[in-house]
Every structure is written in structure tokens, then in C-alpha cells.
Write a structure and sequence with these properties.
Layout lengths: L1 H11 L9 H9 L9 H13 L3 H9 L3 E4 L2 E4 L8 H19 L5 E7 L6 H17 L1 H6 E12 L5 E11 L4 H12 L10 E5 L8 H8 L20 H8 L6 E5 L10
Helix pairs in contact: 3-4, 5-9, 6-8
Bound molecules: zinc ion.
């Protein structure tokens, strides 16, 4: 709420005149900065999907998300903060992309990698395995030696076979990373017991080649599509309980991991 108020204040530079016309008032509310919103149809469709899952409480919150309200005299939009709400997901995605841009642009060396793991039926298991593998690989001497920091945006894609393909796009502030060693470690860490399946740690691209596209790349890796599937986009039997699993598992999960030089620059530095 505080952020919203500040944003409104910064944008307009003054408090709202109580003598405004209704028309300009609503235009101002509609154009509040930094607050992407979905249209009402999208909210209604998602709310119906939640109703169908017996999640009436969440459905109501999504239905009323974005309604106009006042906070300390400033017009704001309410936020339901439910992960699968189209408006709230868009806000999280754009906030994360902003962080990626602000951090990565200051990296001494920027290199992007794609991290995968074997597809799994259980989203929670898959997510936990992924996070543990990432934490372990970050502790390796070969990794720590070369990496000053990084950002990692995690995605939860559901394959047509009904298995979750948890993966991440990682941008490292790294110099001389021994990729062969790290890759071997990652494969071992993500191997599924009793199978030949393992994930991979691959070179993806070098964002420094064209920093003009950094924002686009950041928006791409932080996109909400996989953890907030667009409403009315759950067509096959394999994806029927997709929403239910996302709702149960993704609550409170950090979609963006940042450490070292990838952490948010301090207030005084921005
Ligand atoms: Zn919402």
C-alpha cells in the first residue's frame, strides 16, 4: 500500500484537488503508474475457475481485485495478492523484471544460463528439489570463486504429459566460471533416483552483447504465464488441476532469487 501511495505522489507531485471533475478523477485512477491491471473479463473467468475448484473465498478476492479505494487520501486499487490473479501476477512479474534490470545493468560481467531438471508429476517435490540444487550449486567452491552475484527467475511450465518442468533463467555476475564442473555438479544434484534423468546447466546467452534488449530479456524471464496461466487457458484433462496445484504450492514462494551483486541496490544507491 505504501508503495502505491508513494507512486501516486511521485507521479503527480501533489495531493489530489478535492474539486476535481469526476471524469478526470477516474482517468487519474485508471492511469495510476506501476500498476498493471487485467480487464474485468479476465478476473471473472479466473474467479469462475476458482469457484469450480471450490475456492470461493479466493474467487471473491480475485473478482474484487483492482476495485477502487482510497488510501490516506489517494486513490488506489485494491490488490488481492493471490498468485493466480491476472492483475497481481502481472504486478509481481513487472516488479521482478524491474529488479533484474536494475541489478544486472550494474554487473561487471553478465552471462545468462538456463537451468533445468527432469519433469515431475508433483509440483512441490519438483520445486523443492530445484531450490535445493540451486542452493547447493551456489555453495560450490568452483561457483563461489567465479560468481559475485546473480538473479534467478524460476518458472513452472506444465508439459502436455501432465508433468511439471520447473526451470530457471539465471543471470550471473561471473568471471571465468568453470562451466564443465558446474554442469556436472548440477546434473548430479538434479538426477532422479533410479532413472537416467537429470537436469542441465546450460549457457544461454550473453546479455552484455546487447544491453538494449536487457529489459525485454528481463520481462521474458520474469513472465507470469507459467505460474499464473492466463484465464480460460486450461483446456486439456492433463491441465485440469494445474490451477489447483499452483494455488496450493506457489503461495508465498519467491519466484526471483537474488544474491550478492544481484540483490536490490540499497535506497541510497538508486
Ligand atoms: Zn489480485
Amino acid at each position: 500500500m505504501e508503495t502505491v501511495t508513494n507512486a501516486a505522489q511521485d507521479h503527480h507531485g501533489e495531493s489530489f484537488d478535492p474539486g476535481f471533475s469526476t471524469h478526470s478523477f477516474f482517468r487519474r485512477v485508471k492511469n495510476l503508474p506501476d500498476m498493471p491491471t487485467a480487464n474485468d473479463d479476465q478476473h471473472e473467468t479466473r474467479a469462475k475457475e476458482l469457484d469450480a475448484l471450490g475456492k470461493g473465498k479466493q474467487a471473491l478476492r480475485v473478482r474484487t481485485c483492482g476495485s477502487r479505494a482510497f488510501f490516506k487520501g489517494y486513490p488506489v486499487r485494491s490488490e488481492c495478492k493471490i498468485r493466480v490473479c491476472p492483475s497481481c501476477a502481472a504486478r509481481v512479474a513487472s516488479k521482478n523484471a524491474e529488479h533484474v534490470v536494475n541489478a544486472v545493468i550494474l554487473f561487471a560481467n553478465q552471462v545468462a544460463y538456463l537451468l533445468t531438471m527432469p519433469p515431475m508429476r508433483n509440483l512441490e517435490d519438483s520445486w523443492d528439489r530445484f531450490r535445493q540444487a540451486l542452493a547447493k550449486v551456489r555453495r560450490l567452491a568452483a561457483f563461489r570463486r567465479a560468481v559475485a552475484g546473480g538473479v534467478s527467475a524460476i518458472e513452472t511450465r506444465l508439459g502436455a504429459d501432465g508433468k511439471w518442468q520447473v526451470h530457471a533463467h539465471l543471470i550471473l555476475d561471473a568471471d571465468g566460471l568453470d562451466l564443465a564442473t558446474i554442469r556436472a555438479a548440477w546434473r548430479k544434484l538434479t538426477a532422479l533416483p533410479g532413472t537416467n534423468w537429470h537436469g542441465d546447466f546450460q549457457f544461454h546467452r550473453d546479455p552484455k552483447v546487447d544491453l538494449r534488449y536487457l529489459r525485454k530479456f528481463a520481462e521474458y524471464i520474469c513472465k507470469a504465464d507459467t505460474w499464473c496461466p492466463p484465464p480460460a487457458n486450461l483446456p486439456t484433462p492433463a491441465t485440469q488441476n494445474r490451477l489447483e496445484q499452483l494455488l496450493a504450492v506457489m503461495r508465498g514462494k519467491h519466484l526471483l532469487i537474488a544474491w550478492g551483486t544481484g540483490r536490490k541496490p540499497k535506497e541510497s544507491e538508486t
